[in-house]
Amino acid sequence: MTILLSEIRTVATKPYPDQRPGTSGLRKKTKIFQQPHYLANFVQSIFAALEGFKGKTLVVGGDGRFFNREAIQIVIRMAAANGFGEILVGRGGILSTPAASAVIRAEQAFGGIVLSASHNPGGPEADFGIKYNISNGGPAPEKITEAIFAHSGTIQSYKIIEAPDVDLDRLGETRVGGAIVRIIDPVAVYLALMESLFDFPAIAQIFKDGFTLKFDAMSAVTGPYAKAIFEDALGAAKGSVINGEPLPDFGGHHPDPNLVHARHLLDLAMSDAAPDLCAASDGDGDRNLIIGRGQFVTPSDSLAIIAANAHLAPGYRSGIAGVARSMPTSRAADRVAEKLKIGMYETPTGWKFFGNLLDAGRVTICGEESAGAGSNHVREKDGLWAVLMWLNILAARKTGVKEIVRAHWAEFGRHYYSRHDYEEVASEGAEALIANLRAKLPGLPGQGFGALKVEAADDFAYTDPVDASVSEKQGIRVLFTEGSRIVYRLSGTGTAGATLRVYIERYEPDPAKHELETQEALADLIACAEKIAEISRYTGRDKPSVIT
Ligand code: G16
């Protein structure tokens, strides 16, 4: 074992006022994180919010973006100075978010720190982020994130060990102060977990029989995982994984697997050269994109289809206990839960809200409209898990994505669904828009907009059924008498200005009306969304910047 000579130092610092974690940890421009003591202040504030970790294990990893390695060295030295006994770090500083969750659980660690700004671009001019995960492997609940923020507002000093950098690229152990730093294979634990959940021999067989896959790792963290799983373990043709090397700037791309930033996959899937399945994951590996030959699957539909078919995978053979979705996610999964006679939970946006439900065994499968799906195998959403689940379903049902989606709509009805994002608008305007909507809420029920009539309107509040904690102001809902819905909320993950998200949904039970183009099917609701919220007046934009 290498022993690095070291000494604990207490460094004086001053609070930064902007360290309140958002939907998923603290996300800011990289330059903000590079300010003197900025990252160290936040890390010390995390430790201040925790109790009883002396001598325990901390898992550390990130998505490989610019500043990842430097940040990991700081976290290692501070964790050792603050009394952690063991620090597990993915080789090269790499751990996808779901893999970090899997390692925390497998190693029974006290918690973990994940360095990532998820699907946001990386680089000196782009974004960076950090979040803390608790011992169940999931994102810290609001009670902890608020305590972190409270400490960050009064911090006067932090503890760090003065020691040379740990070699992140060599598996093995190094002593730093009183802690052992163990560099681990970032893929091994995760791969073993996936093998325990899915029918690898059946999936390998469809690849042998000529099934074709194109998986875009978007030059982000999933490359090494995807190659090990799809190409090495399952026998997909070499080259099935593209952009498979994690790069600090993601090759200059926006590692968000949606129809804007992964447009090339949609084009491929709609072309004559379409493989059987096109898929992608994001910066830190927790999101997914699923497109079959000629068929994009919306994340909300994907959740519903996974819930209806999960029993085909060995890890879920005995059925699922319940399903949870974030409030803005379409209600397609609700129909499946109803049919299966299992629990259905509607939570605020943010994977952290699923943790209690999963821990309590109330739900097995969770998902969000923001390209997230996952299960009780970890406490994060999991991009590669979703792709494997689809592969397992395809292998078991011996049919194509398109056929599965159409059959699902025919059985349950179709939820036309779209999200319109107005990115990086002025915060004042966005906040005024929401304030105006809140003020309008009591007067909306009964109002008509063309053929649409408002049945109810509210500001979503959630009481956690497990610990009774209450989260208010989680999004404005406008429900129409014929079952359609518009939801408005401000994103909690942006790093510049504000992002208004408008979620639009219409339920269509009639299979004869399932072939409309989504924006067309929603046109009257889209116009109504503008009328109710006066989006162009408040944002200065006459159209969304991203439509998913
Ligand atoms: C994070 C959260 C998700 C959330 C998404 C979008 O995902 O973990 O739960 O749905 O952000 O949140 P918002 O609408 O507030 O921007 P990720 O993939 O960015 O970690």
TrEMBL record:
Its EC number is 5.4.2.2. This is phosphoglucomutase (alpha-D-glucose-1,6-bisphosphate-dependent). Belongs to the phosphohexose mutase family. It catalyses: alpha-D-glucose 1-phosphate = alpha-D-glucose 6-phosphate. Its cofactor is Mg(2+). It is an enzyme of class 5 (isomerase). Keywords: Isomerase, Magnesium, Metal-binding, Phosphoprotein. Transmembrane segments: none annotated. InterPro entries: A-D-PHexomutase_a/b/a-I, A-D-PHexomutase_a/b/a-I/II/III, A-D-PHexomutase_a/b/a-II, A-D-PHexomutase_a/b/a-III, A-D-PHexomutase_C_sf, A-D-PHexomutase_CS, Alpha-D-phosphohexomutase_SF, PGM. PANTHER family: PHOSPHOGLUCOMUTASE, PHOSPHOHEXOMUTASE FAMILY MEMBER. Signal peptide: none annotated. The lineage of its organism: Bacteria, Pseudomonadati, Pseudomonadota, Alphaproteobacteria, Hyphomicrobiales. One of its GO terms (molecular function) is phosphoglucomutase activity.
